[in-house]
Amino acid sequence: MHARSKTLTTSAAVIYAFLYAPIAIVVVFSFNAARHGAGWQGFTLHWYRTLLANEQALSAARNSLLLAICSTVIATVLGTMLGFGLNRYRFRGHRFVSRILYLPVFIPDIVMAVSLLLLYSLLRQWSGLFQLGMTTMVLGHVTFQIPFVAIIVRARLAGLNPALEEAAHDLGANGWQTFWRVTFPLMIPGVLAGAMLAFTLSLDDFVVSFFTSGPGSTTLPILIYSSVKRGITPDINALSTLMIAASALAAVTVTLLQRNRKV
Amino acid sequence: MRANLQTAVHHGETLTPRAYSLRTGASVGPGLAWLGALFLGPLALIALISLLSRGEYGTVGGAWTFENYRRLAGFGLLGFDSLYPLIIARSVLLGLTTAMLCLSAGLPLAFFIASCKGRYKNLALTLVVVPLWTNLLIRTYAWQMLLGPESSLTQVAALFGLAEADEGLYPGLFAVSLCMVCDFLPFAVLPIYASVEKLNWSLVEAAMDLGANRVSAFRHGIVPQIKPGLTAGFILVFLPAMGQFVIPDLLGGAKTMLLGNAIQQQFGAASDWPFGSAVAMVSLLVAMLALWLMARHTGDDELNIL
């Protein structure tokens, strides 16, 4: 590698500062005693105490977790099966499905959100079911999570050594035994990575949740959005700081895990 | 081999065609059924409803019509109206500008990360990834504080006559664009970095030995080699920037509406779902056109969705 120039280091420092400026200001202001305005008026933990007493925030946190857990469980099962099938079997429309799988990843999320909203309102007129709420949100989240899980699991399977399964068969294992004792254990890192990504995507999602939520199913991002619309209050900065800390911790953990496994 | 026409050896296992198709259906069936019902189905629904018109009380009704698309093209009931053509053009231009800015800022950062050694390289890379894991809504509303009337950024800008001292730097296209570059920069850095890591420096040295100056060595020795990274970075920034709803909603003004806001307005306050569906179809088509152009450019079949 070439020796790097001062210009490169300086511009990298400026760009990192730019990337972290919004995160930094939220964290700093969550500890700022000032209620309004941009000036620093001393350190306080007051906004965190306000937050812990905020019943709305606590219920939004519960909703966010419930939504993420339910949708991740469903999407991981369906996505793993889909990724496995796409890797193992060739069928009519295989190419079409492989392409379509990337579509939910790339199209604007608001398009997906309003298309679900339309579907739900149509189904509601016909059946009286599909009132907007936690169920409709779970259905929507699973829909954007499945492709991510399937793509990751399929990539993991594509990287496996086929000799391992052939050896199991040669040694007398039947299809079922080979799957559960050889193939599935080898798939697990991919399944876990997919589930982890699905979980994060669900916790982070605002747009699909916003359009498919009902009264009483407010999640943390929806709560932040409506608070910002009314004017930012310091306890929202405290909430955001906690969320930033949680996601930074998750990002660092995943990076460390990947490095140790030398993936 | 004993395999006859009726069976196929599959991962060391002999399967009859019947068993093969049963297993195919059992593994991919449920997931595909889900995506068909809740992804492709609703998209088809949007395409259909975009050809209807708004009935009384915001219901959907009327006969089949292209009126919504005519309105999007500027041919309104009261003569030519540039509102929606401008919204489409603004969204595409903002997506292109944001993508170009992200590439320009992403290049030096990618080269910097590649030049780091050992654990510092991991640290530099993790520092790019962490903001990506942070909620976009938080990173976006933070810019309201950074660009607000009382912030130091605004005061510095006011010194140079770039802003009014008592008004903030938002709402407006500048704020939207700045925030988008900040939010989507990691999408550009990561693929460019992957290309830079594979860079063959001897080609660059050869160019320099043959008398190329730094600029032409970069253009002819480096750019062709990192082109896959640049293309991937470009599309990964363009797509979310073009279809954004949150960022223009929080940082943009009423005069700088984008496709995302237009969709939300029609499905929300205006309650004209057929017209909103037509706007959604346009965003979808722009995204798919961009993907198609990129796939044709790079020859990557998986991403060639059309």
What brief labels describe this structure?
heterodimer, A: 263 residues, mainly alpha, MetI-like fold, B: 306 residues, 2 domains, two-stranded antiparallel ribbon, 69% helix, disordered N terminus
Describe what is shown at a glance.
The complex is a heterodimer of chains A (263) and B (306). With 263 residues, chain A is mainly alpha-helical.
CATH homologous superfamily identity of chain A: MetI-like
One letter per element, helices H and strands E, the order of chain A comes to: HHHHHHHHHHHH
> How does the major sheet of chain A shape up?
none
Ends of chain B: how far apart? 41 Å
CATH architectural arrangement of the largest domain in chain B:
Orthogonal Bundle
What's the Cα radius of gyration of chain A?
23 Å
Quaternary? heterodimer
Total E-strand runs of chain A: 0
The number of domains of chain A is 1
CATH topology of the largest domain in chain B, what is it called?
MetI-like fold
The CATH class assignment of the largest domain in chain B is: Mainly Alpha
Give the CATH superfamily of the largest domain in chain B.
MetI-like
Q: What is the count of DSSP helices of chain A, taking H or I runs of 4+ residues?
A: 12
What topology, given as strand order, has the largest sheet of chain B?
1-2
Description:
The complex is a heterodimer of chains A (263) and B (306). Chain A has helices spanning 6-30, 46-52, 55-88, 94-100, 103-106, 109-127, 134-158, 162-170, 175-204, 207-212, 220-230, 234-261. Chain A has one domain (57-261): MetI-like (MetI-like fold), CATH 1.10.3720. The longest helix of chain A is centred in the first third of the chain and has 34 residues, at 55-88. Chain A has twelve helices and no strands. The radius of gyration of chain A is 23 Å and the shape is globular. In chain A, helix 1 crosses helix 12 (234-261) and helix 7 (134-158) crosses helix 9. The mean pLDDT of chain A is 87. Chain A is an all-alpha fold. Chain B has a two-stranded antiparallel sheet. Chain B has a two-stranded antiparallel sheet with strand order 3-4. A two-stranded antiparallel ribbon of chain B has the order 5-6. In chain B, a hairpin with a 2-residue loop joins strand 1 and strand 2. In chain B, helix 8 packs across helix 9 and helix 11 (259-267) runs antiparallel to helix 12. The radius of gyration of chain B is 25 Å and the shape is globular. Mean pLDDT of chain B is 83; it is low at 1-6. The interface between A and B is large, with 88 and 93 residues.
